[in-house]
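User: I'm putting together notes for a lab meeting next week and I want to include a structural view of one of the chains we've been expressing. I don't have a solved structure, so I'd like a prediction I can at least talk through. The sequence is below, exactly as it appears in our construct file.
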Amino acid sequence: MAFDGGFLNKVLGELNEALDSHIDKIYQPSRDELVLLLRKKGFAKRLYINIKTGSVRLHFTESRPENPAVPPNFCMLLRKYISSAKLVKITQPSLERVAEFHFSASNEMGDIENYRLVCELIGAKANVILLRENGRIVDALKRSDVETAKRYILPNAVYEYPEKEEKLNPIENKAEILKNLSKDTPDLAKKLLSRAEGFSPLICREIEYKAERLGIESSFDLCLADLKVNTLPVLVLKPDGTPLDYSYTKIEQYGTGYNLKVCDSFSLLLDEFYLEKDNLSRINNAARDIVKLVKNLKDRTTRRLALRLEELKKCENRETFRIYGELIKANLYKLKSGDSEAEVENYYDENLSVIKIPLNPALSPSKNADRYFKEYKKTYTAAEALTKFTEEDRLELVYFDSVLESIERCSTILEIGEIREELYDGGYIKRPLQKGAKRKEILKPLEFMSTEGYRILVGKNNTQNDYLTTKFASKNDMWFHTKDIPGSHVVVLCGGKEVSDETVILAATLAAKNSKAKESSQVPVDYTPVKFVKKPKGAKAGMVIYTTNKTVYVDPKKI
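Assistant: Thanks for the context. Below is the predicted structure for the 559-residue chain, given as structure tokens.
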């Protein structure tokens, strides 16, 4: 991506609008993100800082990232030192990927103290550091390792800038950078990258691309002019319309198959480019421990089911033990102690075939019969228990699949929290002790409208599925679910009125779209009035049984 020193310089030009504003609120949505709400008369904007590798940047944002219930330590520290502080200056050392926000704040005694919030936006080494006026570190988002670090990022250490590369500022040293370079120079882009400060690989490749037509100096001047003056940012779109790259100068190197979109501001461009990516990243981070837990539980249950099925198979011959006992009892008069086998007619066979029954010579014939009856009773009881347990294991596996499928469809951290709450209730995760914690309300399901004017509601997880089917919907509404496939409960709020085929297809397609079979075609979806849907006592969240259903086949991709 092209968040280089040059692009940062353009963004900071926009951020100067916030000078003389005060910090109203400070948030830390995740380990790598900070949001400062800046206010002054006629101005209120959120300054967003991200130091996650692959998403490093800072800009104004229109989005509102969800925040954790308990603020992280660094967030609390910033609130302590610079909450309500006034932003007096924004600086950038040359064209380095470093931005410094200078704040003036009042301490508890009412004395004015100055702080610097330094944002080092350097790839994997990115960091946010709070400094006192004397240059000593208050704290940082990422502290350095005392044993391995070359520079110390620790409380009370003297701050040092990141080690500077041997590069030249292109605005001040154009001639030196272009010395001995021409459009025919091998690896021209790489040589420019090694010499020019603030230029990303994208910019260097663009200069090389345009140099073929314009010559190296004219190509370089075009880029330099866009860096110096107020230009609008450019978003590079793939042929399918998804964002590929961005810059402060016109990008032509990708050819005619790619489109350029001019955005109204650098901040809006970055919001558009990273919004979906960052949201997915936050959700994945929030769900990582749940996914790992559920997958481990699923693997453990799968192994346990296999062992139980193996044990159940051994119980298949339990009737043989009963028959052996019966035949020995019927032939006690012919048998004597010390016999190692009994050769008797099997009256359970219509041909009265003769079978040999193994005996324990140390036991009397009667005791041998009792031993077989005891073995029969033991295996019969075991088979009953194992049949019950294997059914429970299968239901558990279906439930785990439904949880994993629900996580895949989560679009907010709140939805992940709802699934976490479901696992708390199910006893799969130990609920943390929080004094005075209140149970959160169930989030709203997805809602659609049919052409007939019927509301169609789609549960996004098992908690919502249960609420939708067993509490919200009336008994005469129509209920939809993919046949034997984990997915959402879908309800058409028709109140017993006749539903057209078009609405049935729409509701069924929504059920298929929000299921594990969303990438398939011809997905079977069962539907029936809600009154025929029942939740068995003790069933897992989202698990129901239903009767009197019809089935329709739909393609989830057609919606």
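A couple of points you could mention at the meeting. The mean pLDDT is 91. The two ends are 33 Å apart (CA to CA).

User: Perfect, that's what I needed.
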